[in-house]
Amino acid sequence: MAQLTSIDRIFSQAVASRAMPGIVATAATDTGVLYEGAFGQRELGKDAPMTPDTVVWIASMTKAITATAAMQLVEQGKLELERPASEVVPPLAAARVLEGFDAAGQPRLRAPRRAITLRHLLTHTAGFGYEIWDSPIARYQTATGTPGITTCTNAALTTPLLFDPGDRWNYGINIDWAGKMVEAVSGQRLDRYFQEHIFGPLGMRDTSFKLSPSQRARLASVHQRGDGGVLTPIEFGLPEEPEFHMGGGGLYGTARDYLTFTRMILQGGSLGGARVLSPETIALMSRSHIGPIEIGALKTAMPGLSHDVELFPGMSKGWGLSFLINGQAVPGGRSAGSLAWAGLANTYFWIDRTRRVSGVFLSQLLPFYDPTAIDLLVKFETEVYRAL
């Protein structure tokens, strides 16, 4: 780990200058951990330091775990990528395409032209959106009294489609529905299923939907970046007893645990003697399933929660079974065909199956796609590759 002191210096400066509240970062090759470091405070104004076992809300980094669960059930023949998903979760049959709003401000809806499949859900091509980036969803919620997704209520899953399934890529509540499919065919709540089939076998002791007393004692606060870059801790927490576990973004966890998960993917579905998925399934998840469909920018509809997001501008991008896939090599960093995603509070990971390296970068900061966090993530990645 000695050659990565440059990362320590970069992150230490970022937290000392109050450009960032706290950071935990870790990276590994398939032979072992390459780097681990923690910097800054769990909450600004308080003493507790960030540590490698600090717990954070990993938000949409939950999606890859839910997809892993779904693909375990595909391997077992209990789920199919192409079967209409409503055959497994009947409420999905009620999904309608939003065509606009009438003069009274009520939504105009129509039946979709084709059925939603698990493949559509795992690739964000079903037509669902998020109110953070899709103002028509927010308008629909207001007009109909439909709650937002972080309420973890079943009613939150009833927002309409923005287009016909398979027509486009749009980031949304798709993986929450995939989680419902996992529950339907396994007969288990998502927390139980994850524990028995993913977390337990891999030794991921600090990843869960509900915080234990030990996790709560190590929890980092979410911070909001306001005017002039000033960081303020905010109240944030998901429902303790939700109607449904949010497979699209409900998990809390640590950098160590998430690195364990990415190393399992990196090593073809097994780690430390525990086999989670077959190498063939990992290969299937790691290739793009959206053909010529383009992944466009996410334009924010809620600036307090997210900046505009454009990933690898000018580069062709694919989408695997829950992963972003960069079409070209990143200068100084990941290979073409690497897997990646992120979480709303500026948490990020990548998995490079060509160079055999993976990295995890965690902070707890809004809005998403914070320029300072992205700059630090790029520097972290560059130093990791320099050390290989």
Q: How would you briefly describe this protein structure?
A:
With 388 residues, this protein is α+β, with helices and mostly antiparallel strands. 28% of the residues lie in helices and 17% in strands.
Order of helices and strands: HEEEHEEHHHHHEEEHEEHEEEEEEH
Placed side by side, the strands forming the largest sheet appear as 2-1-15-14-13-12-11
Work out the radius of gyration. Answer: 20 Å
- Extended strand count: 16
Task: Work out the strand percent.
Answer: 15-25%
Shape: globular
Q: What is the CA–CA distance across the termini? A: 11 Å
Question: Main beta sheet, described?
Answer: 7 strands, antiparallel
- Poorly predicted runs are none
Give the helix proportion (percent range). Answer: 25-40%
Number of helices: 10
User: Which structural category do the helix and sheet elements fall into?
Assistant: alpha+beta
- Average pLDDT metric: 97
Keywords for this entry:
single chain, 388 residues, alpha+beta, three-stranded mixed β-sheet, 10 helices, 28% helix
Describe the protein in words.
The protein is of the alpha+beta class. 28% of the residues lie in helices and 17% in strands. It is built from ten helices and 16 strands. It has helices spanning 5-16, 62-75, 118-122, 135-144, 174-186, 190-202, 213-217, 255-266, 279-285, 371-387; strands at 22-29, 32-40, 56-57, 97-101, 107-110, 222-225, 231-234, 252-253, 270-271, 274-275, 317-319, 324-326, 339-343, 347-352, 357-362, 365-366. The strands form five sheets. It has a seven-stranded antiparallel β-sheet with strand order 2-1-15-14-13-12-11, sandwiched between helices. Strands 7-6-16 form a three-stranded mixed β-sheet, with no helix packed on it. Strand 1 and strand 2 (32-40) form a beta hairpin. Helix 1 (5-16) packs antiparallel against helix 10 (371-387), helix 2 (62-75) packs across helix 5 and helix 2 (62-75) crosses helix 6. It starts with a helix and ends with a helix. The mean pLDDT is 97.
